[in-house]
Every structure is written in structure tokens, then in C-alpha cells.
Amino acid sequence: MESATYPDDLLNAARARHRTYRTLAGSPPDAGTTALRRRLLRLSCRVFWHPHWSTPSASTAGRVALRSRARALESGAP
């Protein structure tokens, strides 16, 4: 299967969303995580409403592949 290509800004937003989520998940409940939750919401909206998804080749599978690619990049995989 051919690897999907994503615009740099979309991939960067997905990576930032993944980092923010991991930081939020590892924070203690009383750590004042409002800023992190707001950042996660902004990044999620940016990824979800990106113009890339309005192209004919975009699909739900593409969203899953983007999430997997962002996670792999954050963990140091090529």
C-alpha cells in the first residue's frame, strides 16, 4: 500500500496534538491543566478542519493513517 502524503502544516499540527495529549494524560489531576486542554482543543480543530480533508482523495482511513504517522514521528520512527 502506498504511503499517504500530508501537508507539512497538517502533519505538524497532528504531531503537536499528540504531544499535548501525552502531556495532559501524564499530568496530575490538580496540575491546572486548563491551558493544555485548550491547546488540545485548538489543535484538534485545526487537524479536523484542515483543507486537506476536502480533497477527493481524503478519507476516514486517511485520518487514521495521519494519527499513526504523527505517533510514529513523535516516537522517533522514520
Describe it for me?
The model has no long low-confidence stretch (mean pLDDT 90). The protein has three helices and no strands. It has helices at residues 8-25, 34-48, 60-74. Helix 1 (8-25) runs antiparallel to helix 2 and helix 1 (8-25) crosses helix 3 (60-74). Helix content is 62%, strand content 0%.
Short description:
The chain is mainly alpha-helical and 78 residues long. It has 3 helices and no strands.
Secondary structure layout:
Elements: H1 8-25, H2 34-48, H3 60-74
Helix pairs in contact: 1-2, 1-3
Structural class: mainly alpha
The arrangement of helices and strands along the chain is: HHH
Quote the distance from N terminus to C terminus: 17 Å
Instruction: Kindly state the number of beta strands.
Output: 0
Query: Radius of gyration from the CA trace?
Result: 14 Å
**Unreliable segments of 5+ consecutive residues:** none
How many individual helices?
Answer: 3
The largest β sheet comes out as: none
Beta-strand content bin: under 5%
Amount of helix:
55-70%
Q: Would you tell me the overall average pLDDT? A: 90
- Please tell me what the overall shape is: globular
